[in-house]
Automatic annotation (TrEMBL):
Its cofactor is pyridoxal 5'-phosphate. It comes from Phaetusa simplex. The lineage of its organism: Eukaryota, Metazoa, Chordata, Craniata, Vertebrata. This is Kynurenine--oxoglutarate transaminase 1. It is found in: Cytoplasm, Cytosol. InterPro entries: Aminotransferase_I/II_large (IPR004839), Kynurenine-oxoglutarate_AT (IPR051326), PyrdxlP-dep_Trfase (IPR015424), PyrdxlP-dep_Trfase_major (IPR015421), PyrdxlP-dep_Trfase_small (IPR015422). Homodimer. It catalyses: 3-phenylpyruvate + L-glutamine = 2-oxoglutaramate + L-phenylalanine; L-kynurenine + 2-oxoglutarate = kynurenate + L-glutamate + H2O; an S-substituted L-cysteine + H2O = a thiol + pyruvate + NH4(+). GO terms for cellular component: cytosol; mitochondrion. Gene3D superfamilies: Aspartate Aminotransferase, domain 1, Type I PLP-dependent aspartate aminotransferase-like (Major domain). CDD domains: AAT_like.
Length: 437
């Protein structure tokens, strides 16, 4: 009897439990690095979130929504977006794009930009479709394409040497036009664009966007445009929306995030903006998976946008103030890193900065023939031994390319002055220990 039970149990256990679509997508660097940072870090410049509070007007909106008269804000709202939020998003993005947007069909609210991306891939990518991804990239694009049955096709940004003695800029990382063109074929369904780009902070120029747009139109390819860092652009640079270029509105889904826009990543309010011919399919995925995002959070974000629409372009606008503050923080971190010889690549946008760790290699020797890219081992060593958390750049490359650029790490500088000073202290102390025998 026992023998029979154990045999049948064994038979059951030997059957694969996970769906085939999950094969090869189970590893996630955030699980590992978030845990390492929680365990060892004194200063966490790893994961991308601010350690300063969201603006008061936004917090107050949330409190009002939560404890005000309208108790219906505690109940379900419209699946594709709380009406006040889709209305103001349509108005706001309509103004930015110079076109009339219908709140009900051209906008959909999601649980963060993350779910917006998931809806895009599930709704628009089929078995056998190819999706072009520009490396380095926000890591979830690859597993999301694979889970939809698609094949990611990677094309790298290639660094050009900066002018003598100058620090490199994220603008020095560029696409090779011929290489990019060679990736488009009749199998290509979409390209993912992320400008400003995480992790480099690159803000794609009009010429670069026109190159991509031209190829999309020529090959009838969709563009999934992840613009979550749209307001975080520095040195007078301009964020250009690819959907505003000729022939692109009809083939582009814009993805945005209130988490990044209002420094409230835990609220998980995101959105998509685009033509109904694309969004109607995103709605199908959304209604059959998540249904909708927390009503109170949507109401508060709607009020935040209402304020920003009234203050648009004015000095009091949060979308004007935040980049100013972040530019200052960027410059502090650039100085700290440059002073110790951990060469920063100056980002034109986002709140990330990638730095070259070559000069620190003697502290963390390479292990020949190891499967783990050097930068990953370095970042782990750094958090354990120096208490400073950062993310290896190889995390933003596909499997086959993880060793192409393995001597860089990414820092997040959306942090209080005290946090950045503490990081500076760690770096200075480290440098002293290195130079004095
Ligand atoms: N896209 C990019 C490029 C990101 O960096 C992030 C967050 N790190 C997201 C999307 C996800 O945004 P959200 O927190 O709104 O889900």
């Amino acid at each position: 009897q026992t023998h029979f039970v154990s045999l049948s149990l064994q038979a059951k256990m030997s059957r694969p439990v996970q769906a085939r679509r999950l094969e090869g997508t189970d590893k996630n660097i955030w699980v590992e690095f978030v845990k390492l940072a929680a365990t060892y870090s004194k200063v966490n410049l790893g994961q991308g979130f601010p350690d300063f509070p969201p603006p008061d007007f936004l917090k107050e909106s949330f409190v009002r929504a939560l404890s005000g008269e309208n108790h219906m804000l505690h109940q379900y709202t419209r699946a594709f977006g709380h009406p006040p939020l889709v209305k103001i998003l349509a108005q706001f993005f309509g103004k930015l794009l110079g076109r009339d947007l219908d709140p009900m069909t051209n906008v959909m609210v999601t649980v963060g930009a993350y779910q917006a991306l998931f809806c895009c891939f599930q709704a628009l990518v089929d078995e056998g479709d190819e999706v072009i991804i520009i490396e380095p990239f926000f890591d979830c694009y690859e597993p999301m394409v694979k889970m939809a049955g698609g094949t990611p096709v990677f094309v790298p940004l290639r660094p050009k040497a900066p002018k003598d003695g100058k620090l490199m800029s994220s603008a020095d990382w560029q696409l090779d036009p011929a290489e990019l063109a060679s990736k488009f074929s009749e199998r290509t369904k979409a390209i993912v664009l992320n400008s400003p780009n995480n992790p480099l902070g690159k803000v794609f120029s009009r010429e670069e966007l026109e190159l991509i747009a031209g190829l999309c139109v020529k090959h009838d390819v969709l563009c999934l445009s992840d613009e979550v860092y749209e307001w975080l652009v520095y040195d007078g640079k301009e964020h250009i929306r690819i959907a505003s270029l000729r022939g692109m509105w009809d083939r582009t889904v814009i993805i945005g995030s209130a988490g990044k826009t209002f420094s409230a990543t835990g609220w998980k309010v995101g959105w998509t903006v685009g033509p109904n011919r694309l969004l109607q399919h995103l709605r199908t995925v959304h209604q059959n998976s998540v249904y909708h995002c927390a009503t109170v959070a949507q109401e508060a974000v709607a009020q935040g946008f209402q304020r920003e629409l009234e203050l648009y372009g004015k000095p009091d606008s949060y979308f004007v103030q935040l980049p100013k503050e972040l530019q200052q923080k960027r410059d502090w971190l650039v100085q700290s890193l440059d002073a110790v010889g951990m060469k920063p690549i100056i980002p034109e946008g986002t709140y990330f900065l990638v730095a070259d760790i070559s000069k620190f290699k003697s502290d963390v020797p390479d292990v020949p023939d190891s499967d783990e890219p050097y930068d990953s081992r370095f970042a782990k060593w750094m958090v354990k031994n120096k208490g400073l958390a950062a993310i290896p750049l190889s995390a933003f490359y596909s499997g086959a390319h993880k060793n192409n650029y393995n001597h860089f790490i990414r820092f997040c500088f959306a942090k209080e002055e005290a946090t950045l000073k503490a990081a500076n202290d760690i770096l200075q102390k480290w440098k002293k220990e290195k130079t004095s025998p």
